[in-house]
Amino acid sequence: MRKKTMTKTSHSIRTLSLMMTSVVALTALAACQTTGSSAQGGEVGRQAKIDQAIERAANDADAAGSAQDSLALVEKLYKRNPKDASVATRYARALRNENRLTRANLVIEPFAQDSKTATADVLVEYASIQTSMGNHAGAEAAARRAVDKNPESGKAYHVLGVALDAQGKHKPAEEAFRSGLEYWQGNPSPLLNNLGLNLAAQGFLDEAAETLRKAAATAPNRAEIERNLRIVNALQVSGGQVPSYLKQEEKDEEKKPKKDDEKKNDKKAAIDHDAPYVPPSKPHPAPAVQKASLSVKPIMENDPAVKQAPVPTQKPVSTAAVNQ
């Protein structure tokens, strides 16, 4: 009887010991999990700080006018955050500004095609790249989606206007440009320049010249705007006919040697799009544009290479006709 009691006691002690061991093990496991969570949170915070540092450096490079340095930094940021739509948009814009259009399209297209990530900003950049590549119908479709996403996006209306104008849809393009002015934020010189060219294409040379003068006043260092204004002024004086000296300038411009570095670099980027970006020794040249007659140049925001639109050959139309 006594022996049996001792056995029960021993069993109880062993059970209690096992329970205590389990409690200690669970406590230790919980402590490890807490420590692991803290370590994970610390790593996330560290990575976020690195991203912020890279972004600040890229902003500084932009402010200093160093586009290639900015591109290299934004590429690092993109490779660290390849699924971030806003980072991809900024990287694609930087590539577009350097005329690396194929690579820019590869970066932004997945986000533009996905309804979950296709924000107005993503679609505006995608449309800008499409029109820079000459795909104006695709640019129009993307820009319309951007307007639907954000009806108060001046940039969406702007790129829509450029895409429409390039297809010869001048009146709808004018409406888009004017809507863009209503909601525009920042320096309006690109939009004013393109509205001026649109008005010139419709034959409203007086109003076109006035609009281009406003564009030049807001961006006095933009040589493209000054040239466009000079052409429109010459058309006014000559009754809508292109003066011979401007035709000669056009021929001289076309005779300048063209390089195919951009095409080669874009092809390489399309094949090896994960390769690190190596800044070229010289800026990429603007792609050659075939022109049948004297042309003036639409300006995308911060975009040096956009296809050129033809100057009208019809006689000037009174500015008053615009308001009728």
From TrEMBL:
<dbReference type="InterPro" id="IPR011990">
    <property type="entry name" value="TPR-like_helical_dom_sf"/>
</dbReference>
<feature type="compositionally biased region" description="Polar residues">
    <location>
        <begin position="315"/>
        <end position="324"/>
    </location>
</feature>
<protein>
    <submittedName>
        <fullName>Tetratricopeptide repeat family protein</fullName>
    </submittedName>
</protein>
<feature type="signal peptide">
    <location>
        <begin position="1"/>
        <end position="30"/>
    </location>
</feature>
<keyword id="KW-0732">Signal</keyword>
<feature type="region of interest" description="Disordered">
    <location>
        <begin position="242"/>
        <end position="324"/>
    </location>
</feature>
<dbReference type="InterPro" id="IPR019734">
    <property type="entry name" value="TPR_rpt"/>
</dbReference>
<feature type="compositionally biased region" description="Pro residues">
    <location>
        <begin position="277"/>
        <end position="286"/>
    </location>
</feature>
<dbReference type="Pfam" id="PF13432">
    <property type="entry name" value="TPR_16"/>
</dbReference>
<feature type="compositionally biased region" description="Basic and acidic residues">
    <location>
        <begin position="247"/>
        <end position="275"/>
    </location>
</feature>
